[in-house]
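Reviewer comment 2.1 asked that we show a complete input and output for one of the modelled complexes. We chose the flavin mononucleotide case, as it is the one discussed in the main text.
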Amino acid sequence: MEKLLFIDACMRDNSRTKKLANFVLEKLAKNYTIQTIDLTQGDILPLNKETLEQRFDNNIDEKFVNYAKMFSHAERIVIAAPFWDMSFPAVLKAFFEQISLLNITFKDCEKKCEGLCRAQKILYITTRGMKIRTGSKLEQATPYLKAFAHLCGIKKVYTISANNLDYLSPNDVNEKLKKVMKRNAKFIENF
Ligand SMILES: Cc1cc2nc3c(=O)[nH]c(=O)nc-3n(C[C@H](O)[C@H](O)[C@H](O)COP(=O)(O)O)c2cc1C
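Response of the prediction step:
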């Protein structure tokens, strides 16, 4: 079976985003072998002066080289991340910084960069506290993911979201999550 990489940035126990992601992954497990990278453990930090200099000396943490290869070789990528500060948790940006590696996720063709990643599609799963829709100017996660996907040569980013969850009763939250799952079930099967 082809490989699907799941990137998990869901920080909370009982994460609503993770609930949506589990529904998606259960369906996709029929067609893909799923590998997971867990960003919740505090071991993914942004590049700093020292690690950037090490990178220029081609001295890169083996863990990130392996993650970059997983990202580059996966047939499909699913990212689950709650909506934080109008975007996604900073650890996800730190992860991208660490795995965006020359000759693994992109190459330099003298006058331009070219993506090297195999995946045609990324599925980004999120839940938002406020009533903010995908595509709103206030939603700054999907635009960044599209730009990063472009750098990697990945053509499409799809977003599945449930919104306004912090202003609904627990019952209504569950109903909303169920609705989102139902609405996207066919799409997920064909992803
Ligand atoms: C640190 C933090 C920052 C947040 N920032 C926003 C925000 O900017 N806009 C918003 O609509 N909701 C925001 N929320 C609410 C979450 O998006 C919302 O509760 C979401 O469902 C949490 O997902 P989870 O259950 O997977 O953790 C924030 C929550 C946290 C914990």
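The chain has six helices and seven strands. We note this here for comparison with the apo prediction described in Section 3.2.
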